Amino acid sequence: MARRRIIYHDWLARERAVDQSGEVSNGADSEIDQHVQRALATLSENEREFIVHFYFMGQTEQQIAKATGRTVIRVHALHRRAVRKLRRSLGGFVAERFGLELGGRASGCPVCESEFAAEIDWIIANRDRKATWRPVMREIHESFGIQIRSPQVLIGHERYHSRSQRRQDNGQ
Ligand SMILES: [Zn+2]
What is the pLDDT of residue 107? Predict the structure, then answer.
């Protein structure tokens, strides 16, 4: 049985959530929504603003830095802090509702070991499939400071560890 992982920004964007039966439910889930709103409320103004611009509006850390007059390093730190806080405040609810422990990841995989595995999964899932992996590798490096050595790393991650693969596994 494949491990599953909760993707927090799916909740934030209210796209979908995978429940215990492995089904993907679309649209708002009031219980999830309530917890997400509560978690967002624990963030600082700057952190919340970052989450909105990065996850809802699809801006890069570079764009947000430019718009807010901060350095990319500071924006990156803000990003890490905001995600860490969200993870912490949603962890109990996730474990209870979905029967999952946080942090089930493949060791040795730079994506899975990254604090931004969920964000990178999103980038991979939404990539231009007609293009090479190069722009994806560049974006991961620019946004998260992670150097992916070769496309094989991402191909392996997508095939064996990523959310879409798990969803297929769960559906069987
Ligand atoms: Zn991986």
Answer: 63
